[in-house]
Amino acid sequence: MATIDVLLIMKPMFRIGRLETSLQSFIAAEYRTAVDLQDLLLRLTFDNICGLTFGKDPETLSPELAGNPFAMAFDTATEATLQRLLYPGLLWRLEKLVGIGKERKLKKSLSVVENYMNDAIAARKESPSDDLLSRFMKKRDADGNHFSTAVLHRIALNFVLAGLGKDLAYLQMKSVASAVLLRYRLSPVPGHRVEQKMSLTLFMKNGLHVYLQPRKL
């Protein structure tokens, strides 16, 4: 099996323990606390794919569940980009020209994403690793030149998008199902509305709020 395949299989496993720690913190709370399971799983997925792509773990699934500028900017940018596909071109072009609405958010988000990419590329130039970005930085194009920074940006972003899509999601789903459902019973929070969020991937608009109950193993 190729090295990249091994990385794809193993890296999600490395952070299942971190998910378990986060779930335990809710169990240990003095009062019964609802868990947004979707938020935790999205954080787990994001940490996994960023570790694989950049060799840098953003640790969004930390005990504090703190926000991450790159993660938030990436989510905002993908949502704003989808708006361009759903609304008349004249409308989003006008918003872009005036600098309002989703286009204003998109511009700010892309700036955050670009800065993160530049920092990641600079870090890998100084200290190459076995991540995907380092691998592509060693490769050359058809003319024998190293890939430009702009090309590396697109490659990395495509991997992040792909990682948030079907293949890694299925792999992670199996890992999470075996690790979490074995230890906990999940019950939905009464009255919580589950609605689809407009996104490039299928998210729930208001998250997935559940209660956890440890199983007796």
UniProtKB/TrEMBL annotation:
InterPro entries noted in UniProt: Cyt_P450_sf
Domain of life assignment: Eukaryota
Entry coiled-coil feature ranges: none
The entry's keywords: Heme, Iron, Metal-binding, Monooxygenase, Oxidoreductase
Cofactor: heme
Gene Ontology MF annotations: heme binding; iron ion binding; monooxygenase activity; oxidoreductase activity, acting on paired donors, with incorporation or reduction of molecular oxygen
The keyword Chloroplast belongs to this UniProt entry's keyword annotation: no
Keyword Iron: yes
Family to which this protein belongs: Belongs to the cytochrome P450 family.
Name of the molecule in the record: Cytochrome P450 86A1-like
Classification lineage: Eukaryota, Viridiplantae, Streptophyta, Embryophyta, Tracheophyta
